[in-house]
Amino acid sequence: MVVSLNAARKGKGRSDRTINVQRVLELLRAQGPISQADMARATALSRATVNNIIKMLRDRGVVEFHWKNGREALVALASNRGAVIVVKVEERCVRSSLFDFEGQMRFDLHNSEIACWAEEPSSPPMVLDMARRLMDASATHRAKVEGVAIAIEGPIERSTGAIAPWAWQRLPEWKGVDIQKQLARSLRVPLVVENDANLAALAEWTWGTGHGSEEFLHIICGSGVGGGLVLGGRIYRGGTGLAGEIGHMIIEETGELCFCGSRGCLTSFATEHAILAALRNSQHPRSSLREVVMSAQRGDAACQRVVFEAGQHIGKALATVVRILAPSVIAIGGPLALAGEPLLEGLRSAPEIINLRAVGESPRFCIAQVIEEAPRLGAVAAILARLDTGVSELSPWMLDPRPIPAEQTAKTA
């Protein structure tokens, strides 16, 4: 069973021991692998206290040692018990994954593989059905599902727990649904529900360029533009729950009308739709963002140009964000980030970014390292944190999914 210290929090107060364990776990997520001596210095706990906590966590399968030599070891989070399920919810697509930490295996399931859901838009019943199928698959491998995380392609309001009204048209079956409340009632395991861009940011902070940063901003660019902030090791949602919605910052007041109701949003300039539209009247239009990126990598001038210009638009939006929040690291992720340096060149050449650098120190801009499946991997990080465990390094098996056996795919809920 995955270690859980949440029970200790349900009493009237949290013991010093529980608080100290949380400090150690948070440090391991932010800076691990790390030596016990450095851990004691960073947490201001005695070495004896740190040693006892690490021994307890190791006995429960939460940490492991990476030996540097015969006398010193680095401590890393490395869950090796139980399983978790993550579900990525898009407009007409639901992708779910079972991460079996005990068997060191990952199984994926797509709604297109299930006859009754193949042509349906994503919905709460679809998510529940697919989660239950993965729970059944986990049982056949004798790994208990300890928690579920939902990464949803939409902004979630804190006041209602539902998708923000201006995004309902993209996820009509989720209109007015308190997602956490409705799904938790049926799944009956610890549950995390989060916007996919926030989870992508958490994945990059946990395993990528943002690791160790106290103030980290991650931008994901693909079919849409989303942003996620990780401050002090935690996703920052703001008072409304909608922090990080950089895609709907207005950068050109006379720009195209966005589905959110505004004109000139960043989404109108740096998404797949906008980039393909810019190439439509060229001699060689492209059919997908991936094709644009690959052509740019091969030296196609037109594709390099539109990627560069997308970077400039992103830079214009980011300059405003930097002045307000001053993150130390900003990473660009998503399919567009695969274009690499031409995108960063455009961003750095934006007049707003040039001006920003002229008046003071600016953040480090970089391409994300965790690009493929970032929201799903961030969902793993989020649910493991909820279970008071985690993994300091992505294991190869976590990136190598297997299909669910056909007989389990066909099984009804």
Automatic annotation (TrEMBL):
Pfam families: HTH_24, ROK. InterPro entries: ROK. It comes from the Bacteria. This is ROK family transcriptional regulator. It comes from Stakelama flava.
